[in-house]
Amino acid sequence: MTLLHITTERLVLKPHTQNSLVWLNTTFNNPEEDYFNGDDPPRESPEPLEVTQKILDRILNRPPDADIIDYAIHKRDTDELIGCGMIAHINHYNRRCDLGIGLGWNRDNWGKGYASETLQAIIAYCFNELNLNRIGAEIYEFNERSIRLFERNGFRREGVFRQYIFKDGIFKDSYSYSLVREDWESQIGADR
Ligand SMILES: CC(C)(COP(=O)(O)OP(=O)(O)OC[C@H]1O[C@@H](n2cnc3c(N)ncnc32)[C@H](O)[C@@H]1OP(=O)(O)O)[C@@H](O)C(=O)NCCC(=O)NCCS
User: Fold this and answer.
1) Do residues 73 and 82 make contact, with C-beta atoms less than 8 angstroms apart?
2) How far does the centroid of ligand 1 lie from the alpha carbon of residue 116, in Å?
């Protein structure tokens, strides 16, 4: 299992511990999280702590050859847990992965650039440390904050999964986004 540890200007990205349990449970039980992030039917009752514990146990005990790196997002000054993410479907032969990211239940932490700061560090980690060539993300058409987040950080919409998910009683599209190394390198060059 690869463990990631990255310090940015305001954040520390590091592995989950047992201390993530209540935060994860509160986040999974937040209706918005399900809405923007999941394709399961809406929950009829809150997810019990024991179920979240099993998910966390899986995260904490990934096998050494797992194709996924999970991380928690903490504030650097207070160590408060404010979000989580994953680098998933890591494929070293084809040098690609897919990203997931969320700032969790506490809306006070949204709209402050924490997700962007995280994403920039994770993109650099994927290209520089993991030596990948392509980073993908899938985003529902109505997830405007996530679309802004990924587009602001250089991702391009490359495709549409038409009528992919059933939300609010109708079928909605999902978008496929990607950032490839050559685009990122030319952006970094342009930023200098
Ligand atoms: C997607 C998600 C992570 C985006 O979070 P976010 O806080 O909107 O994203 P950012 O960190 O990029 O913050 C951007 C906002 O902070 C503002 N901001 C304030 N201070 C900032 C700073 N120092 N640096 C950068 N932006 C800053 C930006 O202007 C921007 O404002 P806007 O929302 O009016 O455009 C969040 O909405 C979320 O957790 N959603 C639920 C889970 C989810 O949908 N995940 C993605 C699945 S594909």
Assistant:
1) yes
2) 6
